[in-house]
Amino acid sequence: MGITQILFWILAAASLLSALMVVISKSPVYSVIWLIVTFFTISAHYVLLNAQFLAVVNIIVYAGAIMVLFLFVIMLMNLNKETEPQKNRWLKLIGAVAGGCLLVVMVAALRDTDSRMAQLGSGNIGLIQNLGAVLFKEYVVPFEISSILFLSAMVGAVVIGKKEDSKVVDIAGDEAKRRVAEARESMGV
Fold first, then answer.
1. Are residues 127 and 50 in contact, defined by beta-carbon separation less than 8 angstroms?
2. Angle separating helix axes 28-48 and 3-24, nearest 10 degrees
3. Neighbours of 32 (CB within 10 A)
4. Domain map of the chain by residue range?
5. What are 3-26's pLDDT values in tens digits?
6. What is the C-alpha to C-alpha distance for residues 106 and 40, in angstroms, rounded to an integer?
7. Which among 34, 46, 79, 167 would be 20 to 30 A from 15, CA to CA?
8. Are residues 27 and 62 in contact, defined by beta-carbon separation less than 8 angstroms?
9. Which of 41-45, 89-93, 121-125, 178-182 has the highest mean pLDDT?
């Protein structure tokens, strides 16, 4: 058993434990934190599979942006036990039975599969260098079209923002002009 296999089993145990903690944590904030840990362990699995690009994207997009969004939503919702509706025992029992049925189906589906593992750390399919070469040789036109699309979206956002700012300035300018006129009238000028 090599170091990569030992690392795989440690990461697999950490992934399962953190995913379980997401489900059984009482506080939603702690669930989000455990979900971030789960995403980091999954990213480590990607690194073991020599897919560094997927690992980095997983950390940036999911552990970074999506989890911050989840955390803000949870904090803005102000969840507490008094406002949370209590679940019936029958609903809990039905949920446990449905989860057990799903587990039985998964075990039955995976029982007859071949027990080969992925080749850890071998191959060069997920390397960023190879992805860049394919992107700029075979898919250069769609890549450039998407960059133009993103550029036009950014310009549109700036234009919309500028129009809103000019309306605010116009309203503030009109208000200032009105106040100056009122002040002149009150002073008799």
1. yes
2. 160
3. 20
4. 3-124, 139-189
5. 888 999 999 999 999 999 999 988
6. 25
7. 79
8. no
9. 41-45
CA angle 172, 175, 181 (to 5 degrees): 140
Question: And the tokens for 120?
Answer: 């850890």
Picking from 18, 53, 43, 31, the residue whose alpha carbon sits closest to that of residue 126 is: 53
Q: Does domain 3-124 have CATH number 1.20.120.1200?
A: yes
pLDDT reported for residue 165: 46
State the SS3 of the chain.
Answer: CCHHHHHHHHHHHHHHHHHHHHHHCCCHHHHHHHHHHHHHHHHHHHHHCCCHHHHHHHHHHHHHHHHHHHHHHHHHHCCCCCCCCCCCHHHHHHHHHHHHHHHHHHHHHHHCCCCCCCCCCCCCCCCHHHHHHHHHHCCHHHHHHHHHHHHHHHHHHHHHHHHHHHHHHHHHHHHHHHHHHHHHHHHCC
